[in-house]
Design goal:
single chain, 278 residues, alpha/beta, Rossmann fold, 10 helices, 5 strands, 56% helix
Length: 278
């Protein structure tokens, strides 16, 4: 059983008299609250961006995203500027390639040609090897006096093919000079094949001097024609036309019209001619 306290009448009457005032106060508070809310609602549009401004911001963001960046306010000229910069870099790279090619061409054009007289590896620089027969033996002292570095390799009765073998042997020994004089053909006819074999054996020589024959026999003129043709065909070959000079001086020779006294005018002339062509 719950106990309930009974107030005096005056208290009850007094509390009853307070209830109307409480209702009025509640109504007043509600009105004040409603007014505050209305004020807030009226102020809200001024703080929000206008619909037009929101759409404009959205457009800028779309362009920014398209360029790979999600930052507002990025100028639409940023993307074209990047493209222009890339084009300029590409153009510069394309222009640089011809410049490099031109430099390479210039280097190739200025490459110096091989030094004439150097000779191929295995040849003795500064040595002049003189191949010959008995006519060369007659002029040997003068050849050695007139030609610096001359080494005479001559034998009585030497044939052309024997001279080819001599060249091959000297080359194998490392004793062949970079310059070679061939004074063979006095003892028999030669052929174009013989000359080809000799030139093959002398490949790489800086200079080759072919001496024409002066001999009163039928093979003199055919031999000399082949020798002259070879001199015209090979760029490193020179012709010493001994026959043309000797024919003008028959007194230089013995009765056979071919051999000369050692140290005589004919021998000296022979050596001087060869020396002028080396």
């Amino acid at each position: 059983m719950r106990h309930r306290q009974t107030l005096p009448r005056t208290d009850r009457a007094g509390r009853a008299s307070w209830r109307p005032l409480g209702r009025v106060a509640g109504v007043f508070a509600a009105a004040v609250l409603l007014g505050a809310c209305s004020g807030l609602g009226a102020a809200e549009p001024s703080r929000r961006p206008a619909p037009t401004a929101r759409r404009a911001s959205g457009a800028l963001r779309h362009i920014s995203v398209g360029s790979g960046r999600a930052r507002d306010g990025l100028s639409t000229s940023a993307t074209p500027t990047t493209s222009t910069s890339t084009s300029q870099s590409t153009t510069t790279a394309t222009t640089a390639a011809p410049t490099t090619t031109t430099a390479t061409t210039a280097t190739t054009a200025t490459t110096p040609p091989p030094v004439v007289g150097a000779g191929a590896p295995g040849l003795v620089a500064g040595r002049v090897t003189i191949l010959g027969d008995s006519v060369t033996i007659d002029a040997a002292p003068d050849l050695q006096a007139d030609i610096k570095g001359a080494v005479v390799e001559a034998n009585v009765g030497e044939q052309w093919y024997q001279g080819v073998t001599e060249v091959q042997s000297l080359r194998a020994e490392g004793a062949l000079g970079a310059v070679v004089v061939v004074a063979l053909g006095t003892n028999g006819p030669i052929t174009s094949a013989d000359i080809g074999q000799m030139m093959q054996a002398l490949a790489g020589c800086a200079r080759v001097v072919l001496v024409t024959n002066h001999v009163p026999d039928w093979w003199q003129n055919p031999n000399n024609q082949l020798l002259a043709s070879a001199a015209a065909r090979y760029p490193n070959v020179a012709l010493a036309d001994w026959e043309a000079l000797a024919a003008q001086h028959p007194g230089w020779f013995y009765a056979d019209g071919t051999h000369m006294p050692i140290g005589g005018p004919g021998a000296q002339a022979f050596a001087a001619l060869v020396a002028s062509r080396v």
